[in-house]
Amino acid sequence: MIHRATTALLLRSLCIGFLTTLSYAQVSVLTQHNDTFRSGQNLQETQLHRSNVNVNQFGKLFTQPVDGQIYEQPLYVPNVSIPGRGTHNVVYVATMNDSVYAFDADNNTGANSTALWSVNFTNPAAGITAIPSANVQPLATDITGPIGIESTPVIDPSTGTLYVLARTLENGAYFQRLHALDITTGAEKFGGPAVINASVTTSSGTVKFDPMRQNQRCALGLANGRVYIVWASHNDYGKYYGWVIAYNATTLAQTAA
C-alpha cells in the first residue's frame, strides 16, 4: 500500500492498467481501499478473471515521472472533461514533495506524455517547502526526504472536488492545510485552502494542535457533507495527541474537533 518510487508512478493495481486491450472507463476509486469501510472490495469489477490475469496480458502499462515519494493510494475517476485537453480517464497522484498530479490512465503518448495538470504547494524562493524529515527527528525515523502529502486524498464526485492535506515549512513556521481542488484543473475551490488549527479544553488544560508534531497518515474521509481528517504521531515519540477534525465540504469551515 506504500509506494516509495521517487521518479516514476506505476499505473497499476487500480483496475486501470490491467489489460492492454481494454481502455474503456472503469469503476471510480474515490477513497482509500474503495469505500468508507476501507474494505478494499470492488464489487462492480467484472472484467478480471484467471484467463486474462496472466503474464501475457496483465501488468504495468507505462510510467510517469513525479517529483517525490508516493505514500498515498492513487485515485481514479473516469470520463473527466479537462479544459483544453478533452475527456480522459484520470489517475490522481500526490507526493511527499507537496505535489498533486492528474495523469491520463490509458496511455502516456502524444499529449498524454505529461500530466493533464499538476499543482505544487511549495515555493522555495519564498521560503516555503515540504517539511524536511530531519526537522522532526527523532520523531520521523521511518521517513527520509520531505514530508508533504503523506495521506490518501478523497474525491467528491458530486462536486468534482479532490480534498488533500499538505504539510509545509514556511520560514521556520509549520503549517498543515486542507486543500479542495477542482479535479478538472487543480484549481483551489471553496475559498481554500483552510489552515488546520484547533484547541480542546481537557481536565488538565487546553491542548492545541501542533502542526509540526502531529502526523497525518490516515486517509481522508468524506461523509454527510464533511471531510474528516485524523492525526496521530511519528513513531509514538514524545508528547503527542490523537486528533479527529471535521470540515464542511463546501465551505471548508471547521465543524468539529
Explained architecture:
- The protein is built from no helices and 19 strands.
- Residues 1-25 have low confidence and may be disordered.
- The radius of gyration is 19 Å and the shape is globular.
- The strands form six sheets. Strands 7, 10, 11, 12 and 13 form a five-stranded antiparallel beta sheet that branches.
- By secondary structure, it is an all-beta fold.
- The two termini are 28 Å apart.
- It has strands at residues 9-10, 63-64, 75-82, 86-94, 99-104, 117-120, 128-129, 131-132, 146-147, 154-156, 161-170, 173-182, 194-195, 199-202, 205-208, 221-223, 226-231, 243-248, 254-256.
In short:
With 257 residues, the protein is mainly β. It has no helices and 19 strands.
Question: Secondary-structure blueprint of this entry?
Answer:
Elements: E1 9-10, E2 63-64, E3 75-82, E4 86-94, E5 99-104, E6 117-120, E7 128-129, E8 131-132, E9 146-147, E10 154-156, E11 161-170, E12 173-182, E13 194-195, E14 199-202, E15 205-208, E16 221-223, E17 226-231, E18 243-248, E19 254-256
Antiparallel strand pairs: 1-2, 3-4, 4-5, 5-6, 7-11, 8-9, 10-11, 11-12, 12-13, 14-15, 16-17, 17-18, 18-19
